[in-house]
Amino acid sequence: MLAKEQILLIIYFTVIILFFLVFGIIFFIAFQRRKNKLIFEKHKAEQRYEDEIFKSRIEIQEQALKNVSWELHDNIGQLLSTAVMQINIMGTSIDQKTAESLQDVRKLVGDSLQEIRSLSKTLNHEVIQNVGLEKSISVELKRFEKLNFLTPSLVVIGEEIYINPKDEIILYRIIQEFFSNTIKHAEASTLDVELKYTSDALHIKIQDDGVGFDMKSVQSNSGLLNMKSRAALVKATLDYKSALGKGVVLTLSYPIVHKERI
Length: 262
Prior knowledge:
Shape: elongated
Structural class: alpha+beta
Oligomer: single chain
Largest sheet: 5 strands, mixed
Strand order of the largest sheet: 1-2-3-5-4
């Protein structure tokens, strides 16, 4: 009888130990899950915060560019228009030889006016929304060609697909950043842009034939980081390749949401 009670007691304590062991395991798993969830939520909150900060910076930059665009178009553009009118008036009251020389000045001022108006369009995001990404890129490339900076080309493959206007602005600013780097630093003679529309993405490839650079030395470059941060905002993937003497190639893939298709 005593042996039976001892066996029951052992079983009883074994069950209790197993219960606490199982309870402890379940509690530990639940605790770990809760901990991981909190870490994940904290990470997501930090990411949302960083995204909001970056979006705010972009909005401030866009507003600043918009203001500059207005100033160029309304104020400086108006002054140059007035200058053209004054030159035309002067041309009627001077001799033929001087008038011919004045026409060269008139052309120079007129070309400057057109250039400023073209530049104001590329800075104003509302214009980009109205004319679209492809047209905005084309306008910028034509401006480079007129200024004899380099020889640009634009190739479009596939049928144009609707892109969220806000995303379109960000994509264009990434492309503008590349253009700016090419003009300032690349010493390039050609700049080639390819837009390839597929059923699920817009693939953008831009390359120049400039001096290039060592990728290891520019990983922390603010311009490159800025482009990657902007690409992340619109869930696009960005790749940047270069080598000394071999130019630079940028590839950008922007995913097309099916419900956004026309």
